[in-house]
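Something for you to look into today, if you have time. Could you write out one complete protein record for me, on any chain you like? The space below this message is yours for that.
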Amino acid sequence: MNDHIKGMLKDALILFVITLSAGLILGVVYQVTKEPIATQKAKVKQEACKEVFSEAESFEIVQTAQAEDEWVLQKSELGFEAVDIDEVMKALDADNNMLGYVITVTDHEGYSGDIQFMLGIGEGGTLNGISILSISETAGLGMRAEEVLKPQFADKQVDFFEYTKSGAQRDNQIDAISGATITTNAVTNGVNAGLYYFRTFLNTNIMEGGSGNE
């Protein structure tokens, strides 16, 4: 075996050891951090639920397979093709009585990507408010959604929202973020999708047991 081949084998062995070591270290880091990360995610989710449904004592995930299938079929026709309904939870009081729903939606048409938020909707259809879970819009523009948009959705009972650039005058109108129409449209459309999902699939089928989706 000449020196050239010996050198290649040595380099390959060193590379293998480095790769194996890195893999083992990453595996250990993942095992150590996965539980704290899961705990932190659960904490953030619980806080977001309480933000949109402060009177609820607990939240229970609702299995809505049939509703989800129907949603996928209908959403494009309704103008909600960019919106996913990620999760639906019942909001329950201390005696396990139904107070309403918390719906998590993701709108994929934000200026910089996905915007995910929760809606809290009472049984009567009043939107308690929204809680933004993740957003990565432009600093100083779309990132003002928390400050500008979120408060405007609180405690409203309307069929749908629309945004305006000339000053909201009706209960269902939202003042757009200046210079961030795309972000405004994404959040508004996501809220409207959540309201539609509530009216169409939750407030009839599930609450009345019509489809047996739970």
Notes: Confidence is low (pLDDT under 50) at residues 205-214. The beta strands are 58-61, 83-92, 98-110, 113-122, 127-134, 162-164, 173-175. The chain is about 45% helix and 25% strand.
